[in-house]
Amino acid sequence: MSIRTDLAIECIDFAGETLPQGIITNEKNENGMTITAVEIKEEEAANRIGKPVGHYVTIETDGFEAAAPNFEAQVETVAEQLRPFLPEAGNSYLVVGLGNSQITPDALGPLAVRYMLTTRHISGELAKQIGLPELAPVSALAPGVLGQTGMESAEIITALCEQTKPDLVVAVDALAAGRLTRLGTTIQVSDTGISPGSGVLNKRKELSKATLGVPVLSIGVPTVVDLNTICQGAQEKGQAEKSMMVTPREIDTLIEHAAKTIAYALNRTFQPGLSLEEIAALTA
Question: Helix, strand, coil shares of the chain as percentages rounded to 5?
């Protein structure tokens, strides 16, 4: 039975004991978190594990069910992993919060946008007057889902890119995992783009450099596991074809803390001159 997961680290695990050629992994520990970097270099390896060629970083935390006692260190660790993905030239960013804000397990992206420090409208003399002359231009939007807007997220974001011309698009979205232990404990960062809804069999148009003409950085946290994946095909006859997703009981607080961590890490990445306390005050 095929395993449904958005996590590259799980795709490698499920592929078997022998790591395919063309895949490089590196693991380290920082501030109590395990960070695994995966680079998929060859198409053959990418096809074998079912993930595109590119870079993936997995950050394993103690979980987002409660506020982290070391929140500042956690944010700084995530921000440190994000910085290498920033474009060498240019510093304007568009953050899109993918998902449906009315469905809690899918609300990670829209909620993260609420905590973003948007600065594209603050420039020139105004930036000097408020004492923030070195702000990077950041815009953010939660485009909703097809059923709410009648438009694909990719259509909306493509139009925004044409108008605002960002140097990088950052897509924040809830993910599907293959193991229950990954729910609300793992952050995945990737430069390969994203297909919204793919983890729950609702795949929409891809967001990537190929489709948008702009590099795309995706960030997500697993919030659901497919029941078929959990049971490994042990359901009653006739149930295997049905898609049933499992989510943690503490999903409300999990989404809140995960969204805040991701947003604050992005803010620190885009605006290194601002402290976490200043960012908290400006986004309150």
Answer: 35, 20, 40
Say how many C-beta atoms besides its own lie within 10 A of residue 268's C-beta.
Answer: 23
The beta strand positions in 66-145, using DSSP E, are 93-97, 138-141
224, two tokens: 């659901």
Structural contact between residues 165 and 171, judged by C-beta atoms closer than 8 angstroms: no
CA angle 43, 48, 52 (to 5 degrees): 45
Closest listed residue to residue 59, CA positions, set 40, 80, 36 = 36
Structural domain boundaries of the chain?
8-118+137-270
d(CA 257, CA 68): 8
pLDDT of residue 131: 76
H or E stretch at 171: strand 168-177
Q: Is residue 108's pLDDT more than 80? A: yes
CA 30 to CA 81: how far, in whole Å? 11
Taking the C-alpha atoms of residue 188 and residue 184, their distance in angstroms, rounded to an integer, is: 11
pLDDT tens by residue, 165-210: 999 999 999 999 989 999 999 999 999 998 765 544 555 688 999 9
Parallel, antiparallel or unpaired: strands 138-141 and 93-97: parallel
- Between the alpha carbon of residue 240 and those of residues 150, 176, 229, 232, 244, the distances in Å are 31, 17, 10, 9, 9
pLDDT interval class at 229 (50, 70, 90): confident
Q: Which parts of 116-223 fold into alpha helices (H)? A: 124-129, 146-149, 153-164, 209-212
Domain 8-118+137-270 - what CATH class?
A: alpha beta
Q: Which tens digits make up the pLDDT trace of 35-64?
A: 999 999 999 999 888 899 999 999 999 999
Q: How many CB atoms are closer than 10 A to CB 31?
A: 16
